Amino acid sequence: MLKSLARSTAALVALAVVFGTAAPAFADTSEALATGVVSGANAGIKNAMSRPQTGTVAQVPPVAQSPVGGAVGLPTGFGYTADFSMAYPYGNIGKTGKAWLPGGVDVVGAYGFNPSTRVTASYYQLQHYPVGFNSGTVPLYLQGLASPLGSVDLGTVSPQINVTTKDSFFLVNLEKLINVGSMKGRAIPIVISPTYVSRTSKIAASTSNDDRVAFENNGFPITGVYTRSAQIYSLAITMPFLKTPKMFGTFTLAPSWLVHKAGLNQENNAQLYQILYLEYTPTKDMTIFFEPQSSRDYLPTDTYAQHLMAYFLGASHRLGKNGFVQLVLNSGGPTNYSPYGVTALTCQALPCSANPVVPSVGGLKATQLQIQFGIGTPSVLPF
Amino acid sequence: MMKRLAQPLAVLAIVSLAACAGGTGGGSAIPNGPPSPVYPAGSATLARVVGVGDSLTAGTQSNGTMGVSYFGNPVSALPGGLVPATQTNGFFALLQEQIAGGTVASAVATISAPATSVLPLIAATGNGGQIVVSASAPGFGPTQLSCNAFNQSMYSLAALASYRANPTTLPLDVGVPGITAHEAIYMTNPHSGPPPGPVGTSCPSYPTVLGDPTSGGLQTLLDAEDSNFYPILGSFAGKLGANQPLTMLNAALADRPTLSTVWLGANDLLKFTFSGGQAPIDTPAQMQADIAQIITSLKGVGSKVVVANLPDILGLPQFTKGGAVLTGTMTAFLERVGIPALYAPTIAANASANIQTKYGVTGAGYLTESGFLAAFSQCITQFAGGAGTANCNPVLDPTTAGSGFGSAYLPDAFAAQVQGLNTAYNAAIAAAATATTTPLVDVHQTFVSIANAGGVPINLPTCCSLAFGGGLLSFDGLHPSNTGYAIVANTFIATINASYGTAIPAVNAVNVYNGAGGYPIPDPYAPH
């Protein structure tokens, strides 16, 4: 029983790294933290808070998914998981309208040295399609001219700008669980997670099979910038604020730094990511969660950091011993870049129909529903 | 609307106008810039004087831009078939000659020689189709088609050495004929081209792509700056900073100017005019912002700046006022080609009346040079064909009704719009100058004073005035003659001296007119 629980917890944490947030609206670095850091920390905190105090009686009746012993913090030993996912965006893609986004694959490996120390390495892919790239009417400019030549209906312009995006994250973090006190006989643990995140991307419109796509900045076409690639260091601190037999909540603060300036970035100040996590566990096989986020993220296309708000609403259900399915609705976008999507098109030479046309892009906002199917060792739920 | 621009005469006018007129970020120091003449007084302000502008800064004349003179052109009636250089006659060249000091002859020789010039000297046979007095027939003719192979090669940066006499020089004059104020900051490459090659003795318009309104007429409208972009700025390619696109402003910043002249906006105005109000140009507010940005950028690299405003373009001989003025001008032209004085006034009066009725051009409207010449030639043809003295009824729409609007005729209401935009642009330039604490070169007032005085007494009673053939403008009716540029240069010099404590001597306009005192030839565009 204890062994099973320990395995379950380890796998749960591992899967959480992969599936915790799925394809976020605006696949930014905060979601990587939410996925790779918060969910792992949550597992450890939950375990630690569920541990009965010596000489006392459990404060709440044990329920099926609540550990009653064994796991006292971070999962120990080796754990891994793998999954695939697919997503459906709430925005039209090309002339065919709505369409499924390309599938993603996630792989995670973790090793817990002891209940307070663990390392995790993960690779996962997130899919999204920002709104506003194939709808609306925008002005058409000629490079160098101040006034537009006319207007263009993005829904009918050909060829359309296909920004179907698949972000790939590589993440390594060390998790350190620390008990900072107790309350009503229950430990108050926090998890500190030094983390490295590398994000690369592939955008369908790229002619170089990566995330280099032309866009306009400050009146000029920019062609050589990797528009989404970035690397950050982060120091996440996750702390609990709610623990009942069926509910659990944490709050994570994560000061983060770009490893280096990229693209058009003009500054590289520390940014503070904030992630709230709240879950409800109605049955032993099901978890429902809600996770709003506030972050400041640097995209290489932006001179300064974007202010991002996003949320994730999801439900997970166990399938047999080793499988699970999870459905996540996520949405988000920047608060300081508007309007969303393409705000103008600029042709680089005449006639426009025969020469490159470069978009000016406002904020990137996306909403999608993601379905994930995964297996792990042993079977777990992602949260 | 764009189809109207396909009219050959309109194209000629547009090209000539676009040829008239002239980047972002800090400039990187370029070690191999051209040697800058140093004023004998040793003024640091005058160490590197850079010209930011359009064809008026580039030294365009008579619908062409060329840095070297050549002989043997069969069209030219000048001795030996001379086609004179234009760039070395521009106000900026004259300003540099005055700054250089020494004898005029040596200063002219320095700025004319490819090895020492601070101008981007365009090789013979020049950009555009320079209009000269024709050797074979009365009147004027272009020395070449502006769509010939030589002009077409100017859309290729790789061919720079074939059309620039000094292809490795980083010039201090970065004025690009045809460029607008916004393009001076943001234009990074030719918009299109090369245009279709000659068909017979004419240049066809850019072809229209079915369903694409950005093809055809718009390409024709923008052709002038497209064909001049690389000839002027091409030598800066690959020599600017990593994040600095090839723009006029970036080129100017890279020149590390100590003093900059900024004279832009004419092409916004002219494109608005010749496109019948359809061209995508700066609003006055945008004009103010663009001029201010250019000034601020130049000051950001340590340059002092003067900025010039615009003359009233409708007062230039490119435009002939309707009503009685049209009647009088037409009469004189008809008599000049041999129409008897008995008939000429009646023909002209009827033509003017018909134009008023059909095209709304009264005493407050205008014909462009193309429109006037079209009406003039049709009146001759109709008279010669026996239509009768009372029946000159010119057709100024080359194709469909309204196709000559802007390119051939400016109805009263539209002419008022043009003048309104002219005035608004000058207000915007003045506002930008005030906001940036920059001296304003009041070229507008210079032309107003000349108009009010009836001309400049260079060689009374022959020369000079603002009328067509009056000696202050070249044959395209927009760009100054040698003498006209001298007067413009003196306006700049007066402002620079008054603002920055320099002592640049004024250009001797009489010597320029006469081709004396070291100036190589008499002004070919002024009557003698």
Instruction: Name the poorly predicted regions of chain B.
Output: 1-32, 37-41
Write out the strand line-up for the largest beta sheet of chain B, numbering strands in chain order: 1-6-7-11
| Structural classification of chain B | alpha/beta
Q: Which chain pair has the greatest contact?
A: A-B, 23 and 30 residues
**Terminal CA distance of chain A:** 20 Å
Helical amount of chain B: 25-40%
Q: How would you classify the quaternary structure?
A: heterodimer
Structural class of chain A: mainly beta
**Can you tell me the residue ranges of chain A where pLDDT is under 50 for at least 5 consecutive residues?**
1-27, 53-70, 377-383
Explained architecture:
The complex is a heterodimer of chains A (383) and B (528). With 383 residues, chain A is mainly β. Chain A has helices spanning 2-19, 29-50, and strands spanning 77-89, 101-114, 117-128, 137-142, 150-153, 165-183, 186-203, 215-217, 220-222, 230-243, 247-258, 271-283, 286-297, 306-319, 323-334, 342-347, 357-361, 366-376. In chain A, the strands form 3 sheets. Chain A has a 12-stranded antiparallel β-barrel with strand order 1-2-3-6-7-10-11-12-13-14-15-18. In chain A, strands 5-4-16-17 form a 4-stranded mixed sheet, with no helix packed on it. In chain A, helix 1 (2-19) runs antiparallel to helix 2. The radius of gyration of chain A is 22 Å and the shape is elongated. Residues 1-27, 53-70 and 377-383 of chain A have low confidence and may be disordered. With 528 residues, chain B is α/β, with parallel strands linked by helices. Helix content of chain B is 38%, strand content 7%. Chain B has helices at 8-18, 55-58, 91-100, 104-112, 149-153, 160-163, 181-186, 217-221, 223-233, 248-254, 266-274, 284-300, 324-336, 344-359, 369-384, 412-435, 443-453, 482-500, 509-514; strands at residues 49-53, 64-65, 127-128, 131-133, 140-142, 259-263, 304-308, 319-321, 366-368, 409-410, 440-441. In chain B, strands 1-6-7-11 form a 4-stranded parallel sheet, with helices on both faces. In chain B, strands 8-9-10 form a 3-stranded antiparallel sheet. Chain B starts with 7 loop residues before the first helix and ends in a 14-residue tail after the last helix. The model of chain B is unreliable at 1-32 and 37-41 (pLDDT under 50). The chains are: A mainly beta (383), B alpha/beta (528). Chains A and B meet through strand 4 of A and helix 7 of B.
